[in-house]
Specification:
alpha/beta, about 25% strand, globular, single chain, seven-stranded mixed beta sheet, Rossmann fold
């Protein structure tokens, strides 16, 4: 049971449960043509994010890490016509590709692509007094602890925080790993475990993206309430 088998099962599940999706397939082709790294979530993972947001009834979504807009569009599809999504991308070239993809998919009016370092954009969102129903973190892993801190600040009671790539091919259990990505995930996990304002879990996944997983934290009490 290796990666070829996992990928074959992913293809089967996608064919059976998702079916053809010309819009999303075009996004992946455009991302590849533009030379973007193939770090997008898989189609089944994208549909998982869509269902999480839909079940949660998210009206406002924050995404940290846009890349070419593939996961952005899965999340945007979950929104009601009055909903909105803010997505943060540090790389200007990636952001331009994402903007084109989002425009072609018809979601430009509801998706705000903010270009620049997330650690600059996040304080601006706090200054705007934004609060989000769902926050998806999928950016540079060494910064995950800081992103989680900001996610809490930008949450309200009931916000769902979802973090991608938290298993790292199983390396997350290696306390002494020299990989800064692994250490970023481990520090974030320790923060989540010590945070009384959230209830959290994580799921391991296998598929055409290899062996990895998601962490999820439900905010029970927002920062303003906790400081009262």
């Amino acid at each position: 049971m290796g990666r070829e088998r996992w990928a074959a099962v992913d293809r089967y599940l996608g064919d059976q449960l998702l079916g053809p999706d010309a819009v999303m397939e075009a996004v992946l082709r455009e991302n590849a043509r533009a030379g973007l790294p193939a770090h997008d979530v898989s189609p089944t993972q994208g549909k998982f994010l869509f269902l999480l947001a839909k079940i949660h009834g998210a009206r406002s979504i924050l995404e940290i890490g846009t890349l070419g807009g593939y996961s952005t569009l899965w999340l945007a599809r979950s929104l009601s016509p009055s909903g909105d999504l803010v997505t943060l991308e540090s790389d200007a070239t990636h952001a331009e590709v994402a903007k084109r993809n989002i425009e072609r998919a018809g979601f430009a009016p509801r998706v705000d692509v903010r270009v620049g370092a997330a650690l600059d954009s996040l304080p601006a969102l706090a200054d705007e007094q934004r609060r989000f129903d769902l926050i998806f973190i999928d950016a540079d892993k060494p910064s995950n602890p800081v992103y989680f801190e900001w996610a809490l600040r930008l949450s309200r009671s009931g916000t769902l925080i979802v973090i991608d790539n938290v298993i790292r091919d199983g390396q997350v259990i290696e306390e002494g790993s020299p990989d800064p990505n692994v250490q970023g995930v481990r520090r974030m996990n320790a923060m989540i475990a010590a945070e009384p304002r959230v209830s959290a879990t994580a799921l391991q996944t296998v598929g055409n993206k290899g062996y990895d997983g998601f962490a999820m934290a439900l905010v029970l009490e927002d920062s303003a309430e906790g400081d009262a």
